[in-house]
What we know:
The complex is a heterodimer of chains A (about 525) and B (about 325). A seven-stranded mixed sheet of chain A has the order 8-9-10-1-11-19-12. A six-stranded mixed sheet of chain A has the order 14-18-13-17-15-16. In chain A, strands 4-5-7-6 form a four-stranded antiparallel sheet, with helices on one face. Chain A has about 525 residues and is an alpha+beta fold. Helices cover about 30% and strands about 20% of the residues of chain A. Chain B has helices at about 1-30, 35-40, 45-55, 60-70, 85-120, 125-140, 140-155, 170-205, 210-215, 220-260, 265-270, 275-305, 305-314. Chain B is built from 13 helices and no strands. The radius of gyration of chain B is 24 Å and the shape is globular. With about 325 residues, chain B is an all-alpha fold. Classes of the chains: A alpha+beta (about 525), B mainly alpha (about 325). The interface between A and B is large, with 72 and 72 residues.
Amino acid sequence: MKRKLLEVLLLLGLLSAALCGCGGGSTGKTAEAGPADSAGTQDPAAQPAADHPNAITVGIAQDLDESLDPHLAVAAGTKEIMFNVFEGLVKPTPDGDLVPAVASEFTSDGTTYTFTLRQGVKFHNGDAVEMRDVVYSINRNRLAEDGGEPLIPALSAIKSMTADDTTLTITLDQANTEFLAYLTLAILPEDYDGQDTAPVGTGPFKFVSRAAQDNIVLERFEDYWGEPAYLDKVTFKIIENADSILMSLQSGAVDLFAHLTSTQVAQLGDDFNIEEGTMNLVQAMYLNHAEKPFDDVRVRQALCHAVDRQQILDLAFDGYGSLIGSSMYPAFGKYFDDSLTNHYPHDVEKARALLADAGYPDGFAMTITVPSNYQPHIDTAQVIVEQLKEAGITAEIQLVEWGSWLSDVYAGRQYQATVVGVDASTMTARALLERFTSTAGNNFINYNSPLYDSLFVKATSSAGEAAQTEFYKEMEADLTKNAANVYIQDLADLVAVRKGLTGVRFYPIYVLDLAGVRYTA
Amino acid sequence: MNYLLKRVLAGLATMLAVSFFTFAAFSLISGDTATAMLGTSATPERLAALRAELGLDRPLPVRYGAWLAGFFTGDLGVSTSYSQPVRDLLAPKIALTLGLSLVSFALITAVSIPLGVFTAGRRRFEGARTVLNQLGMAVPPFFTGILLSWFFGVGLKWFTPGQFPDAKQDFAGAAVYLLFAAIALSIPRIAMTARMLRSTVQEELGKDYVRTAIARGNDRGQVLRRHVLKNALPPVVAFLAQTMAEIVAGSIVVEQVFVIPGLGQMLVSSISNRDYPVVQAIVVILALWVVLAGTAADLISQRIDPRLRLGGAA
């Protein structure tokens, strides 16, 4: 017995020796690398802030794996980061206002917009911004190449544009109070064709490099016209794996990480402050109105009643998130109509009654298509599946990869229901609401409401801001009453910021503004 | 010589077939480069225009032919997502993945062969050994990777998880980092190889010639080294070659856990982006890798066992 035990111990010893053999080797290497290491990777908690390189590493879950040209980039994640590099004539503020940027001032009567070019604005390549760059940048988005669709269709409202060295006058075909929001489009140098890979803008940070699936480096732009960024350098590190995200934060490799889950935040510990903003997404179970039985308003209403949204927040998001009842989120302020939020209270009986009325007394089976790379949407769908069971609906989740989602669900409209979040590309209600007009190319739910279409025409042609807001709210109400989709929430945006850092600003659109981020001490 | 030529031709044929099937698979799955590039801003007109620009509107054989022509003239094309030449994009990543794979392979060989031989002759601690072995095989590399990162990275701070050092500036740091990833990657294969070697050695030990050799007064250890190992190794060598191929597949997962910017992450994301020039290049590299490993294994087996050499030439 004793001998057997001894042999077991010996075997264990051998195994650990084998492991230590490698471990031992690495200890030696670590010791050698020690001094160099501690110089390179300073432990922020252990050292006074003055000894820091004035730089941070920001973790992001997805690479900017597309064109970096701001006029051509399409992914929300790319625009989120490149917000630091580019500016338009005007730029958004955290409050949702638009303030002059490349323009020093502007006036407008709704139909005619006049901009004065700000003096002394420079591109990151050192060239001064001239009026021809502004005209080029606007025209690039406004005029279609060889007869196709322009990059920003809304700019086709421009009737004429006249410019001298300092003043730009834009005349619209009719009054449009929202037009200004489109002039956040990036001003780019006319004589430069490297935007795809080495973008040049006028923002507080300039682009330095991108290593595919590895990192993106930005540096402070010293000749910035406005209040300069605090940090010298920001490195964006791409970390896709959820466990690695946590470890990178805890090991000190990453100082700031946005869009964390409540579970990740709970595990982070004391080294971080958690800032809570909103993601500025309309998360919903979007329904394809061209597919039976979702063409029946009673079925859609039944779904709305069957889903308990508060329970979704509690179960999948630890209570974080704000409920919504239409295609608008609270950060949009005046356009958000809170009275729609609880239009469909959780009521299984009512759901069953509506289903019976629609001819489905025993419920039906449906498929919810969810992009597999968005865990919050998968979690949401899983809770919904359970909740729908109570109303007699058998739902099944189909996970598809993002590329397939884009082509089959979004472009092909071949699906029954899908859980995703829709964002606003500009700070206008139009950016969220136009897609549900019956003829919109991106109306992926096939929504068709003549009232909605006519309201949209009224909203976009109304000169008064108050009247316009009213029309938009009526459009939202139309979506709610017709139960266009099962609206759920605007997700909470949980940002982990290493202690000692401050200045994260939240916007009503999906951007990560780093110009204000700085070390406190 | 004849044999080598045959291997080279067979290898080339394999790579051609693999590249064609990958290419064809891309036209079968839903979504193409244009839908991936345009994302949610896609409209039918824009899609059509982009497809024409990228040449995606041409029939499959034509597109494959164009790619192949480029490949043989050393032009791997331009990544559709990064607008950068594929060659520049992949060069640093190949070095990393290759490094990680080679370190893992060295670990597997160096640990599993002595371990297998050592445990073969000793039957007494069967129970503990089986448990350890099963554990080694069953725990997936990503989990081992997470444990190692927690313990040695976050805890002991021997390396900084999520911050892979630039090998040019801090070679030792990069080596340590890679080593931990390699350990996570190799443990299951070490367990498998050791177990396999142990059973083949045990099988040989039970054969008549061993009994005869020992009966004639040979030292047991000498018999093991000189005769038994020679006969027990060829299947293990073949297995190790297969391991070589599988390590590369496993490195895709381990690279993600350790945040190493290698080929793995690149392959996954370029499939998602339908970035076919990048996918094609990576797939061909991996195919070449597998072909090379297989050829090497054959050659080594023949060195060990001359009987195989005759079989190969016939």
